[in-house]
Structure formats: C-alpha cells, structure tokens
Amino acid sequence: MPSFCGLELEHPIVNGSGTYDVIAARRAFGEALIESFPFSAFVSKTITLEPRAGNPPPRLFETPAGLINSIGLPNKGLQGYLERDLPELAALPVPLITNVMGSTAAEIAALLEAVDDRDEIAAVELNVSCPNVRTGLDIGADPRELAAVLDAVRRRTSKPLIVKLTPNTADVALVAEAAEASGADAVSLINTLRAFAPAVGPDAVAGEAWLGGGTGGLSGPAIRAVALAQVSAVARRVTIPVVGMGGVQSGAHAAQMLGAGATLVAVGTESFRDPAAGARIRDELRDFSAKSGSFAR
Amino acid sequence: MSAPFGRRRLTIGGARRVGAYVVLAAPDPGGPAPEPGQFYMLAAAERWGGGEDERPFLPRAFSVLRATGTDPPTLEFMLEDVGPGTRRLGELVPGDGLWVTGPLGQGFTAPGEGRRALLCGGGVGTAPLAIWQDALLASGREAPALLGFRDGEHAEGAGLLRDARVATDDGSTGHHGPVTDLLVAELDAGTPAIVYACGPPGMLEAVRALCEARAVPAQLALESGMACGFGACFGCVVPTRDGSYVRLCVDGPVLDAELLAGVPAH
C-alpha cells in the first residue's frame, strides 16, 4: 500500500500520462475495464489551456524494441476537459491525477488555478517538456528556468504537485533538485527521449523525417536502461517521492524501478501491446514482492 | 458488444495459402463474434521481435476476414508479407500461439432503403469485404464484389468472396486495369448504390472521388499504422473535411466517405 503525496494507493502501478485514454478504452472493453482497473491512480493526458488538434500524421514509427511517437498532445483544452472528460474520469475507482502543460508561467498558473477548484482531482502533474515561448528552451531542461516557473506558479494550487521531468537535459538530477526546492511534492520520469525517425519507403528522401511532426519521442523497452539510470540518479538527490517509468513490461521490471528508488511505477507503451498490461504487471509485482519480500511497500 | 479486456492467447488452428496471401484461422473461445469491418490487434506469442531491424515490437491491426461457426467462433485473417510483422505472422503453423485483442472499432452499416450494395476491394483489402458479403447475403441482399489485384497470383484472393469480378494491373486475370474501371461501369448502370470499399490508399481515394462526383454514398475501411488499437496512443489519426482528426481505431476503421476530403497516402 504505497503512500504517495498524501494518497493511500492500493498498489504501485499507475499509467504514464498520454498512454491510456480510459474513455475510449471503456467504449472498446466495457465495464470489465473498470472492474479490473489496472492502475492505482489514473493520470490524464496532458491538458493545455486551448484545444490542440495534435500533429499531422504519420505519428508513429516502430523501432527495435520501441516506438517513436509524435502525437503533439491533442486535447480538448481546459474547458473541454473540465466539462466533458472530468465527470467520466472522476467516476473511476481510483484517484485522478490531472496532467497540465503551459508555455508560460501565466498559462501554467491559469491551469493550476482551474484544477485547484475541482475536488475530483487528487493531484496535478506538470509536464515541463514544453518549450518556453520566450527562450525556446524546454522549461524542464534547465534547473534555473524550471525554478523560476515553479516559484511563480506553485502557490496557485494547494493540491500535490508532481513535476514530470524531461530526460532531454544534461543533468536530470539537478533539475529534480530544483523542482523539489521550488515546491514540487513529487517528480516523475522519464518522459520520452527525443528521437528521429528517417523517412522510409520507395519515395523516401535521405535526411527527411517520417513523422509529420519532424522529431518525436522514443519509448518502450529500448529506453528502460536509460530510465533506470535517471530514476536512480534522481532518487538519490531528492527527498520527495519519485514516479519511475520507461520500458516497464513486467513485475520484475517494476521491481527494478522500485529498487532504483521509485515509489510508484508507471506503465505506458506496454499498455499499447496489451490493454491489460498494467493489471498483469501489478499482479506479477505482488507475487515478486511476496517471494523476495524486498519490494513490498 | 465489447471486446474482452486485455489481449488473449489463441492457438492457430489452420494456416493456408491463397495465392500470394496466407489465411490464418484461430478458434476464439473467449471472444464475441465480430461485426463486419471490425479488426483485431495480432501478435505472435513467440518470437515477436528479432526480425528485420529487430522488429516487430507492436501488435498489428487486421480486419477480420471471416468468423465461422459458433461455440467457439473461428476467426480468420488474411495477410500478405509486407514487413517484419506480417512476415512473422505468415510463419505461424497450427498449434502456435497468437495474441489477439478485439474485436475493435466500428464496422460497416447496412444499405439504406432502395440502395444496392457494391463491394470494391484492392489486394489484401479484400478481407473485410468477405465477412460483409456473408452478412449482406444472409440478410437477403445482393452483394456483388469487384476486386483488384496486381497480378494473377494475388488475384487468387478473389476466391475468398462469392462471384467476384476481378481486375488486375498486369491483365493476367480478368479486366486489365484498375478495379475502379469496373466500379465506374456499375455506378453508371443506373441503380442507386452504396459502395463499401477497402484497399490501398490510392485505390480508396479513387473510389472516394468517383462516389463523390456521382453523389453515391460510400463507406471506406481505412488502414493506418496503429500502436494500440483501442484509442490510447492517438497515433492512427486521419484528417477529416472539417479540419479535425479522427482516430481510425475507435471512430473507424470504416468511415463514411463524406467525412473525408481525401484518403491520406499513408
């Protein structure tokens, strides 16, 4: 029974933001999804102030043991989320964590204030893998930049704030320290690694991108070793809890993430291969912990 | 009817060659009967990975060719070796394990009053038209099929439907030319029709444009790379006429042609 930011969760397995549309999944799988819900908390996809259509296709490229995506954070915008998605997400049998992203401190402040009003939302996750419109740098790529943004917005919500770190930075642990110092209650990592998919097919031109959005983000087992290193580096340097993710496919992998210092483990790409992967990983982890005794939390 | 939650392991009951294609058959004790036009995500239970470029990694989406019998129904899938996923699936033999998730997505809907169904397929896009033809015939309707293939070996796939008229790119079987030649002749014959089509993007776009020009309704079964098949990844979108996107996996794979300004090239 992990305790995380004041939430008492049934088990350590959650979903990575943007990897599970529970509303669409319920249309496909019906109430069985709810009855054997895989995750101990549900993390929404990234919500922005204004609606986004997402990137032009193609949006996916399969790699050795992985996936490059360039989805572009399609979402209904803050109002659309609150009015149309939140009622259904609030009815899930687990706490709801809402993921938000803005490209300025003012945008992020507006998002945090709006979700702060909603009792259905248990915690907020801030996606900082977004370029600052002023500097062009990803907010989460630079510790000073992140600190400045968090210092400006942190008091806009009394809810627990999880900062979803970007792995595309020189020293992720330094960024995590800055997040903690500026009021983050937890950090989550790793987001996808920036990646390029070359155009393929008979008409392909050398150097051109396959993905409609240009570059994308790599996920899946291809990044698991990188994720373990980054989770471990961050967990050693902060005192707040860490949500570890990146290529987790089994209970043994989840145990490795916990061993690296994570409190919760998120499953993402593996859910694409099996919609019930989270439930399987939860059960495997429980059996693994029962046998070894070392990762029961 | 909902798909069972999660992927389930089936056992291959049959694998037969039909010209250039392979038809896999697998009894599905845990699943509901699919609706025509729905699809499944498939992956080999063993050695899924380690092929060309160390792939495949993700499951592959296949429209169901047929579901025969009940208790349990046997699912049939038609595949052609076009990459590491289809290559591995094409190696499967009876007794091998097959992961399936499904049935998924929205299928075909019946013709409106006074319209006759015309089925138009290209290549491996024949698959969803077979189960749809079965359903139309069973409901007492006519369901003539026009199928295009690149050559005679591929054209053997036409045997998967009843009384199909065939066109081939190389003229080795049937009409020498695109299947849309046959479609134009049928559409211009005068009886109000609705077209059900599945095939490569160029063919589907030609069908869409022909139908639009004649104000003939059409339902198009589209294909796109998919990671998940159940709406999670947002990877399989196609642009719609109103400038937004729809996910093929949950809003399709069968779409009303009037939703689209064009069929995307990939």
- CATH class of chain A equals Alpha Beta
Strand order of the largest sheet of chain B: 12-11-10-9-13-14-17
Residue share in helices of chain A? 25-40%
Strand fraction of chain B equals 25-35%
Strand count, sense and barrel status of the largest sheet of chain B are: 7 strands, mixed
The string of secondary-structure elements of chain A, in order, is EEEHHEEEHEHEHEHEEEHEHEHH
The averaged pLDDT of chain A comes out at 95
Strand content range of chain A: 15-25%
Unreliable stretches of chain A:
none
CATH classification class of the largest domain in chain B: Alpha Beta
Q: Mind telling me the CATH superfamily name of chain A?
A: Aldolase class I
Number of strands of chain B: 17
Structure description:
- The complex is a heterodimer of chains A (297) and B (266).
- Chain A has 10 helices and 14 strands.
- Chain A has 297 residues and is of the alpha/beta class.
- Chain A has one domain: Aldolase class I (TIM Barrel, Alpha-Beta Barrel).
- In chain A, the strands form 3 sheets. In chain A, strands 3-14-13-10-9-8-7-4 form an 8-stranded parallel beta sheet. Chain A has a 4-stranded antiparallel beta sheet with strand order 5-6-12-11, with no helix packed on it.
- The longest helix of chain A is centred in the C-terminal third of the chain and has 16 residues, at 277-292.
- In chain B, helix 4 (179-187) packs parallel to helix 5 (201-213).
- With 266 residues, chain B is an alpha/beta fold.
- Helices cover 18% and strands 30% of the residues of chain B.
- The longest helix of chain B is centred in the C-terminal third of the chain and has 13 residues, at 201-213.
- The model of chain B has no long low-confidence stretch (mean pLDDT 96).
- Chain B folds into 2 domains: 8-104, Translation factors (Elongation Factor Tu (Ef-tu), domain 3, Beta Barrel); 116-259, 3-Layer(aba) Sandwich (Rossmann fold), CATH 3.40.50.
- In chain B, the strands form 4 sheets. Chain B has a 7-stranded mixed beta sheet, with helices on both faces. Chain B has a 4-stranded antiparallel beta sheet with strand order 1-8-4-5.
- Chain B has helices at 84-90, 127-138, 152-155, 179-187, 201-213, 248-251; strands at 8-11, 14-18, 21-27, 39-44, 60-63, 66-68, 74-79, 97-104, 116-122, 145-149, 165-168, 175-176, 193-198, 218-221, 237-239, 245-247, 254-256.
- Classes of the chains: A alpha/beta (297), B alpha/beta (266).
- The A-B interface holds A 18-21, 23-25, 27-33, 36, 53-54, 56-60, 62-67, 69, 71, 74, 201, 220-221, 269, 271-277, 279-280 and B 2-7, 43, 49, 53-59, 99, 101, 104, 224-228, 230-239, 243-245, 247, 250, 264, 266.
